[in-house]
Amino acid sequence: MTGPDSPAPTCYDVARLLQQCESLGENCDLGVVQRAAGIEPFGLFRFSACDAAGVLALLRARLHPLGEPEDLWLDIVGPTQEYWVKSRRFPFESHTNRFAPQHERRVVRRGEIDRIRYLKSHLLQDLASGRKLFVFKGHCDAAVIRELALELQHYGENCLLWVDVADRAHPPASLARISASLLRGTVSRFGTYEGSPSLPVEEWVSVCAQAFRLWRGEDPPRMPLDNLIARAMADGSCHGAPAPGADTRAPGASSLPGEFTYDHRAAATPAVVGHVHLPIPEGGDFVFSAWVRIPEDSGIERISLLLTGYATVTHWPVDLKSRGRWQRAWVSAHLPADARVIACELEAAGTAGSAFQSARWCLERGTQPSGHGFAL
Question: What is the pTM of this model?
């Protein structure tokens, strides 16, 4: 508990950190990590696919003629029949989030020409200013990556972070400097996109934070933290408990460092396994986050964070494919001005008695979560 003269708590501003990063391919992983932090930045390659050799060719051509009518065409992809915009000259293709059954091809193509032209201009400005940490993710020949980092230098004082899969010499969430303008980070696995996205978001954030330190020579940005749950617990105005009827478990091998965790048991049908209710002086935008760990052998089939009684605005769900490690999930909602109480709930379902843990419950005002719980 902090006293009146104690400094206000702070945490890492993960959203602002990831805002400094811009994808240069290979696919959507960094863009999805940014979404997991609650941000949706512009980016030519954010939800695009292009290998390292293709990115290098594009940069050497100063992105021309990408975005021109004679270069772009539309392909209908997958069971959803999404239009993908593709280049005739380069191995570049991108989501449009427009679908053949609902949208007219001619209108989609015209919109994509305008979008690609705008994003090209935006990227060229960022390259010239040296204000972004550029990120390429994927298996690649190291020589091509070195050429790509060198080509970035022709535009300005840029740095390239290459993210690859970990190996014996480079464990997950580690970083190495290859040269003054080239860094190599590692994650345990790349993303999969069958159903809900599944990728090691927390490892990505750690790698980006380490790269930020080397690139900028300073600590990642921080922000004030006002955890309304912690404040209400301290003054006795919080009702309920993250794990009703269960004891908290002292820090151990499966705990977040220095943190107590809450043990939960799921039922066969969705049921609330933890909740807190607390008073608020007025409504507005709120975001509730918690860290969750699902054991490898757990029969958990669903875990949801809820701001009960209010429609979800945005969220990042618990990744059921990520087992044996801590992950952060969150949900946001807008409460009417006359709201005077807020309920944060954790709901779960699965094989009866299936176990999982949670920790670091946090309720904040705003539309996106802070970096509460990230030890970077």
Answer: 0.94
